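Quick one:
INPUT:
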């Protein structure tokens, strides 16, 4: 049995599972999936699946350089990358919440720095 899937942020747990079950699997770089250049930005999931299946058949038939295969990192390396991504997500969430609070306060004509001891600042604010 042979399989492939497009590399993404989901990680490589699926690849490790397939390999543990004896399935030959390839994690394909999404940029190496062929798209027709006549249709600008035509890269939908439906087209990706069709192209991946076609390219998998070509690869299984022995054709070389069909696609770029992603190097699967070790579990430890992948966990390190996940922590970095979680930190970025947390920072984005924090910025989103702060901007939302500032927007709500600005709607009432209140301006605050929202730094340091916010609870004390809020007690001192008057409309």
């Amino acid at each position: 049995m042979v399989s492939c899937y497009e590399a993404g942020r989901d990680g490589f747990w699926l690849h490790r599972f397939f390999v543990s079950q004896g399935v030959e699997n390839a994690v394909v770089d999404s940029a190496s999936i062929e798209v027709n250049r006549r249709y600008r930005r035509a890269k939908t999931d439906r087209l990706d699946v069709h192209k991946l299946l076609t390219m998998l058949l070509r690869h299984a038939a022995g054709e070389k350089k069909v696609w770029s295969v992603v190097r699967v990192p070790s579990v430890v390396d992948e966990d390190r990358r996940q922590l970095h991504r979680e930190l970025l997500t947390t920072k984005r969430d924090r910025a989103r919440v702060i901007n939302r609070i500032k927007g709500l306060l600005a709607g009432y004509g209140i301006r605050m720095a929202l730094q340091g001891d916010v609870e004390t600042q809020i007690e001192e604010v008057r409309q």
